[in-house]
Specification:
By secondary structure, the chain is mainly alpha-helical. The protein contains 44 helices and ten strands.
């Protein structure tokens, strides 16, 4: 060959898509292709394939494998003369190395691609059964199966069939194969065949008529006894036949395997019997089946064995399938199953997952199946097992917007085509997009992308997954808006009954009210309505994820009514991804946070970039005590009088309470981009510190306002506020009062009576101003822990405290002082008060036995006398066994007995003291962990009750929705309130055992 010709051929090969033109040139010049080397159509046909190099190499192998010169010549003559064969054969050789291997082993099978009659273009089960008819054993069945598969692949790669038709043909071939395998099994065991009636029910993609090239074929077996045979014997025979059928298809032979037959969708999965009678199946689905099992039944289809029994199976179970949406927490169960699938994908694979990853095939399938189950009860037109047919029916019925359905259809077809071509190459079961550029190039070319195949493939793939990711959840919610808003021309409106069905399935208790709210929010042509129409499909999903979707939607309407004309509000929700989701979580989590927000709706800004840092959700970062106090004192300084000053302080308190509650809710629920906080103790500590700091700052501001209004810059007496109880321990909850004692010391030269009168007036005015009716929640000051309790003076001098404690102090007062800490007012006076009480709360050489017995007696009396009548002690977070009181009194007994010689115990905080006791060896690490877990859980429950009900409580709510909301806050999904209560009882029971040993025994 001349150099010029070589150069010309080399260039032509490059132009036709060959990546190794030198090797291709050698193959073309070889003896195998000598008769067709100069054919003008051959190179063009090779260039049209997915991988011209692979196709040419495969053609040479096939020619080499022909049995003699006559077969060799027949193949090449037909290849040149018949364009349909040329396109089909080279198309397969360029797309599938596995089918090339098959042709090399069975070189005459290329003739299966020659015929081009109408029945060959779209074969069904009958044609495939004819193609498998001569198979009498597993090996010959595999060869016949691959021959049929060859023809399906040829029509696919040439574009004769689209992706849906190809998937249907693959399912029909699987049907024919199952029938052939069952026939082989029956031939080998005629006695078993005579003893039973066995039906094979296809599930999954095979049942749905949308099978992949390589996929498990999911089945369920149902059997009945033949006449004159006992049920037990029939089931034994049927099980042997079913097992043999599975082995025939699944086992690897010299011709490989066909595909695994998977029967794990049967009742009880792999733990249940392989074969059941129809009545046994029915009993299981009536009593035990989970939501996902009814979802799986959407695709059930009898395919082999006893046709009458298979039809009876479908007829018996179908009514149950269409009642599945009436089950409690139906939507939540389906969505949770989808999330679990995503969570189980290895992190290294999730970005390449075509099927299971975000925006993948499973997202479309789950969304369509969810809508089918909700609306298929009343609309039989939706009852298709095929995803694309069901999607088309949903659009035709107005259950899905036509434009959304068209975009999902396009995306699903593209992703399924990718999946088919990836699997076709090696005939291996995989859903991962390849990473090698040559694989991406072949895959892109097989899908018609020729300019820059690898880059175009990735771009198109990402575009389609993006479409699916955006639409698959909105698909469920957007038609609810269309039901109450103006529709585009040609769109079909969701009927009021269908909208009601969908809202009920989502968990709305009052669907009529929900539709009214949607109409108010989404109707009209204003910018506000347009933005809310965009947001609501997503918000409805987040509301549905809560325990009270009705409240979430109602509260959103209230906030939007208050702020809808404020430009920054709409911009915040539209542009800051975190803000909209945070708002949805907060509005549907209970009463407290929405009540705080609706008193001053502008606080919604905190849910986004609330502090100007540019961080997503940075407005939920909790503030430290110092800047809070500075803000409050500055506001008080600008006020004209004490009442205005305290009003300003209470406004800051309300805003910061909302910030704390919102951060707690978002941290407990998690968001799409940030998982729930795993460390429950950290959540408790943050809330306790934030509310305690906020209370202290509010008291400091109120004290400044009252003093300035009544006395100017200087009060006649030094004045300090000492935090007690949970306040002093930095453990306040949302509904806690401020436990305090007041101490004063007359200024030099000031009469004691004048000083006492001033101090008492300050306290009275502070209490009055902090409880004035207003839009801001009141702050109640409780001074009952002072000496002599309610009978004693409200305010004492430092000297009076010293005299009282020296003479009259009781052991319970020493215990109460363990939590005392200066929180506001004169710092020096506060320090001296602390120094005064330290010997009382950390007595030298610990407590005497009489004092220990007295503490134990007080604790026992409190348990019996203060527990509310009718309350379940095991669920009372404060006084119940293993609750807050148990843990705190145990820790405080350690402090009273050992604080004098273990400095770490000298803290007002329960968890810190417990950790110090463990470090000091006063209890084991396991005991400390048990007590800490119980204390944190009980505190979380109290916080949850306040967030959910809007008022404080020490027991779990009895109203189901409120109980579910508490569970959601604690990390329990819908329908798991019982699990939450069991876990609480278990945790506190373990803690009570430790308390019995440490508090009532001698361990402390």
């Amino acid at each position: 060959m001349t150099p010029g010709r070589r150069s010309s051929t080399f260039t032509r090969l490059l132009r036709h898509g060959f990546t190794d033109p030198s090797a291709a040139e050698r193959l073309l010049d070889g003896p195998e292709l000598a008769p067709v080397r100069d054919d003008p159509f051959l190179l063009e046909a090779l260039g049209a394939t997915a991988d011209p190099d692979l196709a040419l190499h495969g053609l040479v192998r096939l020619v080499e494998a022909q049995d003699g010169p006559t077969a060799h010549r027949e193949l090449l003559d037909t290849l040149i003369a018949a364009k349909p064969l040329r396109d089909r054969l080279l198309g397969v050789l360029g797309a599938s190395a596995a089918l090339t291997d098959h042709l090399a082993r069975h070189p005459a099978d290329w003739q299966a691609l020659v015929t081009y009659e109408p029945q060959d273009l779209h074969p069904g089960v009958t044609e495939f059964e004819r193609g498998l008819a001569d198979a009498t054993d597993p090996v010959s069945l595999r060869v016949a199966y691959r021959r049929c598969l060859l023809s399906i692949a040829a029509r696919d790669v040439c574009g004769t069939t689209d992706v849906a038709e190809t998937a249907a043909e693959l399912a029909d071939l699987a049907t024919a194969t199952l029938r052939a395998a069952l026939a082989i099994a029956k031939t080998h065991a005629p006695e078993d065949a005579a003893a039973c009636r066995l039906a094979v029910i296809a599930m999954g993609k095979c049942g749905g008529h949308e099978l992949n090239y390589v996929s498990d074929v999911d089945v369920i077996f149902v059997a009945e006894a033949a006449e004159g045979t006992t049920e037990a014997k029939a089931l034994t025979s049927a099980t042997r036949l079913a097992s043999h059928l599975m082995r025939i298809c699944s086992e690897t032979t010299v011709e490989g395997s066909i595909w695994p037959v998977d029967a794990n969708l049967r009742p009880e999965g792999r733990n249940g019997p392989l074969v059941r009678t129809l009545s046994s199946h029915l009993a299981y689905y009536q009593r035990w089946a989970k939501t996902w099992e009814f979802q799986a039944q959407l695709k059930a289809r009898p395919v082999a064995g006893d046709a009458e029994l298979g039809r009876a199976y479908i007829d018996a179970l179908e009514p149950l399938v269409w009642k599945a949406a009436e089950r409690e927490n139906f939507v939540a169960d389906v969505q949770k199953m989808r999330r679990r699938v995503v969570e189980n994908i290895p992190a290294s694979e999730i970005e390449r997952e075509l099927k299971l990853g975000p925006g993948g095939l499973r997202d479309v399938e789950f969304a369509v199946q969810l809508l089918q189950l909700v609306h298929g009860r009343t609309d039989p037109a939706l009852r298709s097992g095929t995803t694309l047919d069901a999607l088309q029916a949903l659009a035709a019925g107005g259950y899905v917007g036509r434009e959304d359905a068209a975009r999902l259809d396009e995306a699903y077809r593209f992703l399924r085509s990718m999946e088919h071509r990836i699997q076709l190459y090696r005939l291996r079961r995989t859903h991962l997009v390849p990473v090698a550029e040559e694989d991406q190039r072949r895959l892109g070319r097989s899908l018609g992308l020729r300019t820059d195949p690898a880059a175009e493939l990735i771009r198109e793939w990402k575009r389609h997954t993006g479409v699916v990711r955006r639409l698959h959840e909105k698909l469920f919610y957007r038609p609810l808006l269309d039901a109450v808003a103006q529709l585009a021309p040609g769109e079909t409106r969701l009927s009021p009954e269908a909208a009601r069905e969908r809202l009920v399935a989502l968990g709305y208790a009052d669907p009529a009210a929900a539709l009214r709210h949607l109409e108010a929010l989404a109707s009209g042509v204003t910018r506000k309505a347009a933005i809310q129409r965009t947001l609501l499909p997503v918000l409805l999903g987040w509301f549905a994820d809560s325990a009270d979707p009705d409240a979430g939607l109602l509260n959103f309407r209230k906030v939007s009514d208050a702020l809808g004309k404020t430009p920054w509000y709409l911009r915040l929700l539209r542009d800051e991804g975190a803000a909209a989701e945070n708002l949805a979580r907060v509005l549907s989590a209970g009463r407290l946070a929405p009540d705080l927000l609706l008193r001053a709706p502008e606080a919604v800004a905190l849910l986004g970039d609330g502090d100007g840092t540019g961080m997503r959700g940075a407005g939920l970062t909790l503030r430290e005590r110092t800047p809070l106090e500075q803000e409050i004192l500055a506001a008080v300084g600008r006020a004209e009088n004490a009442e205005q000053g305290v009003t300003a302080a209470r406004g800051v308190r309300r805003r910061e309470l909302f910030r704390t509650a919102a951060a707690d809710i978002v941290g407990s629920y998690g968001t799409e981009t940030s998982p729930a906080e795993a460390d429950q103790g950290a959540l408790v500590d943050r809330v306790g510190a934030a509310v305690s700091d906020l209370t202290a700052a509010t008291l400091a501001g109120t004290l400044r306002a009252v003093v300035r209004d009544g006395w100017g810059d200087t009060l006649p007496t030094r004045f300090a506020i000492i935090g007690m109880g949970r306040f002093g321990g930095h453990e306040l909850g949302y509904g806690s009062d401020a436990d305090v004692v007041f101490v004063h010391e007359p200024q030099d030269g000031v009469d004691e009576h004048e000083a006492a009168a001033a101090a008492n007036k300050v306290v009275a005015e502070m209490r009055r101003l902090l409880q004035l009716p207003s839009a801001d929640p009141p702050l109640l000051i409780d001074a009952d822990l002072r000496p002599e309790g309610k009978s004693g003076p409200l305010v004492r001098t430092l000297k009076a405290y010293e005299a009282y404690y020296r003479r009259w102090s009781l052991v319970w007062e020493s215990q109460a002082l363990l939590r005392a800490e200066h929180v506001a007012g004169d710092e020096d006076l506060g320090r001296r008060f602390t120094a005064l009480i330290d010997p009382l709360r950390y007595p030298a050489h610990g407590l005497g036995e009489d004092a220990v017995r007295e503490i134990r007696r007080l604790k026992a009396r409190m348990e019996s006398e203060r527990l509310p009548r009718g309350a379940d002690p095991r669920l009372h977070t404060k006084l119940g066994p293993g609750g807050l009181s148990d843990v705190e009194w145990t820790v405080q007994l350690f402090q009273l007995r050992h604080g004098w010689d273990h400095p770490g115990l000298r803290t007002t905080r329960t968890r810190e003291a417990l950790a110090a006791a463990r470090e000091a060896g006063l209890l084991s690490a396991e005991e400390a962990e048990i007590l800490d877990e119980a204390w944190v859980l009980a505190t979380r429950v109290r916080n949850a009750v306040m967030l959910v009900r809007g008022r404080a409580g020490d027991t779990f709510p009895t109203e189901p929705r409120e109980l579910a909301a508490v569970g959601r806050y604690l990390g329990y999904g819908a329908g798991h309130a019982g699990d939450m209560l069991d876990a609480y009882r278990r945790t506190t029971r373990r803690a009570r055992t430790v308390v019995e040993e440490l508090f009532y025994g001698d361990a402390t």
